[in-house]
C-alpha cells in the first residue's frame, strides 16, 4: 500500500506591509551525504519580524526539514546564535526593520551556522567543545571552611567589579567570531574567559589563582590578539575584550 500523500501546508495570506525576502540558508544533512550547500526561500517579512520568525515560516510552511535551535525567542536562552550576513547574531534579536532596504529593493539574507564548531545538521553545531572550555575554567563559586549560617555578604562596590560578565548567556557568538578560535579550536575562547572573569573578580570566591593558572596556559588568554570581534558580536553588550584584558592584567600583577 502506498504511503498517504502529505499535503504541503497552505501558505497564510501575506500580511499588509510585508515585503518578500530571499533567505539563503546553508544546509547540511549528514544522512543524505550531500555535503554543505545553499537553499533559497522566498519569505514575507514585516519590519517588526525577527529573523527567527522567517526561519519558523520556512520550517512551518516551506521545508519542515530545516533544522535550527531556538527556545526562548527573547534573547535569553542563547540557543539561536547563527551567522547572518556574515555576522554572528541571535536570530530572535535581529529585527527585520534593520535588514530591509529603505528603497524597497529585493533583499537576500544569508544564514549560516556559527563558525569553528562542527556542523551537525543545517544551522545546528556541536556545542560540546565550547562547553568543554567553559567547564575547564571552573565557572562556579569555590570557597573553603565551613558553610556560613547566613548569606555571603558583598559590598555594592565589590559586586560591581564583575557585574558585566554575569550577563553572559553562553550563546557562543563571541567565541565563534574569534579568528584565533577559528584557526585553532584549542584556544579557550572569549566566552570561557568571560565566565572565568565572573568568578576571578568575585570577592567571595577563593579560587582566583587556580583559574588564573588555567588561563595562563598556552591555550589561554595570551592567545587573544585584541581584535574586538568578540565584543562586537556579543548580543548582551558585554565588554568581552576588556574582560580578557583584565584577566591578563591580573596575571601580570600576580607574577
Ligand atoms: S579580542 Fe581576543 S578573544 Fe576577542 S575575537 Fe579578538 S582574538 Fe578573539
Ligand atoms: S560573552 Fe556574550 S557573546 Fe560570548 S557567550 Fe556570553 S553572551 Fe554570548
Ligand atoms: S531563542 Fe533564546 S536567545 Fe534566541
Question: How would you explain this protein's 3D organization?
Answer:
With 255 residues, the protein is an alpha+beta fold. It folds into two domains: 17-122, Beta-grasp domain (Ubiquitin-like (UB roll)), CATH 3.10.20.30; 126-251, Alpha-helical ferredoxin (Fumarate Reductase Iron-sulfur Protein, Chain B, domain 2, Orthogonal Bundle), CATH 1.10.1060. It has helices spanning 51-62, 128-136, 156-160, 179-183, 190-200, 208-215, 229-233, 240-254; strands at residues 19-27, 37-45, 81-84, 87-90, 107-112, 119-121, 124-125. The strands form two sheets. A five-stranded mixed β-sheet has the order 2-1-5-3-4, covered by helices on one side. The site of FE2/S2 (inorganic) cluster has 12 residues, from loops.
Could you say how many structural domains there are in total? 2
What is the highest CATH level, the class of the largest domain? Mainly Alpha
Q: In one word, what is the shape? A: elongated
Could you state the order of secondary-structure elements as H and E? EEHEEEEEHHHHHHH
Radius of gyration: 22 Å
How far apart lie the N and C ends?
Answer: 76 Å
- What are the low-pLDDT stretches, counting only 5+ consecutive residues below 50? none
Let me know the CATH homologous superfamily of the largest domain. Alpha-helical ferredoxin
CATH architecture of the largest domain: Orthogonal Bundle
- Which structural category do the helix and sheet elements fall into? alpha+beta
Task: Using the coordinates shown, work out and report the CATH topology of the largest domain.
Answer: Fumarate Reductase Iron-sulfur Protein, Chain B, domain 2
State the helicity in percent bands: 25-40%
- Say how many strands there are: 7
Small-molecule binders here are: iron/sulfur cluster, FE2/S2 (inorganic) cluster
Strand content: 5-15%
Helix count equals 8
Mean pLDDT: 94
Spatially, the strands of the biggest sheet line up as 2-1-5-3-4
> What characterizes the major β-sheet?
5 strands, mixed
Amino acid at each position: 500500500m502506498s504511503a498517504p500523500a502529505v499535503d504541503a501546508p497552505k501558505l497564510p495570506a501575506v500580511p499588509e506591509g510585508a515585503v518578500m525576502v530571499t533567505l539563503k540558508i546553508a544546509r547540511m544533512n549528514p544522512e543524505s551525504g550531500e555535503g554543505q550547500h545553499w537553499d533559497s526561500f522566498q519569505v514575507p517579512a514585516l519590519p517588526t519580524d525577527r529573523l527567527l520568525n522567517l526561519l519558523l515560516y520556512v520550517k512551518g510552511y516551506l521545508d519542515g526539514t530545516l533544522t535550527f535551535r531556538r527556545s526562548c525567542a527573547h534573547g535569553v536562552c542563547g540557543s539561536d546564535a547563527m551567522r547572518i550576513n556574515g555576522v554572528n547574531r541571535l536570530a530572535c534579536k535581529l529585527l527585520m526593520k534593520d535588514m530591509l532596504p529603505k528603497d524597497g529593493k529585493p533583499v537576500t539574507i544569508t544564514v549560516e551556522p556559527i563558525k569553528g564548531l562542527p556542523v551537525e545538521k543545517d544551522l545546528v553545531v556541536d556545542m560540546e567543545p565550547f562547553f568543554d572550555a567553559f567547564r575547564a575554567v571552573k565557572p562556579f563559586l569555590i570557597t573553603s571552611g565551613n558553610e556560613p549560617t547566613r548569606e555571603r555578604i558583598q559590598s555594592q562596590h565589590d559586586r560591581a567589579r564583575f557585574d558585566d560578565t554575569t550577563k553572559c548567556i553562553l550563546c557562543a557568538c563571541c567565541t565563534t567570531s574569534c579568528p584565533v578560535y577559528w584557526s585553532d579550536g584549542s584556544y579557550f575562547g572569549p566566552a570561557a574567559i568571560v565566565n572565568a572573569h565572573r568568578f576571578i573578580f568575585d570577592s567571595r570566591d577563593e579560587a582566583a589563582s587556580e583559574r588564573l593558572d588555567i588561563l595562563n596556559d598556552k591555550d589561554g588568554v595570551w592567545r587573544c590578539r585584541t581584535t574586538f570581534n568578540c565584543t562586537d558580536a556579543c548580543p548582551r553588550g558585554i565588554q568581552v575584550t576588556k574582560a580578557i584584558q583584565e584577566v591578563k592584567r591580573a596575571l601580570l600583577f600576580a607574577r
